[in-house]
Amino acid sequence: MLSLSKIDFFGQDLVRPECVLATASGYFYTADFRGGVCKIYPDGSQQLIIGQAIDSCPQLKPNGIALLANGDFLIAHLGDETGGIYRLTLNGEVSPYVTHIEGAPLPLAILFT
User: Fold this and answer.
1) What's the rounded Cα separation, in Å, for the pair 39 and 107?
2) 14-105: which CATH architecture?
């Protein structure tokens, strides 16, 4: 059994970090409602990756995230009226990944990883 005294808190000033990914190399990634993903380095420093606005998604509102093999992310977008899954690159480029199924727009989405 793990004692609570052995647990350290890290990550600061995150906004709605509802999905957290941990990697074997010691990095953590979390959805951040400011519009992207926050990368937390093993030393505790942070880098916020904000998605650039596009017509179909003026501002990402991430709920769930998935890390792709090439380092990009899939973001479950909780838009004001529509949802969808968007790809976010490490340099902030946003592109639609899945926004419609059989011609119907996806509702607000939650991505389980």
Assistant:
1) 27
2) Beta Barrel (2.40)
Read off the pTM.
Answer: 0.85
Q: Smallest Cα–Cα separation from 23: which of 60, 66, 58?
A: 66
- Residue with structure tokens 């968007």? 86
Rounded Cα distance between 13 and 20, Å, is: 15
Tell me the domain boundaries of the chain: 14-105
Model pLDDT for residues 46-94, shown as the tens digit of each residue: 999 999 999 888 899 998 999 999 999 999 998 877 789 999 999 999 9
Q: How far apart are CA 113 and CA 3, in angstroms?
A: 27
Give CA–CA dist 73/60, Å, rounded.
12
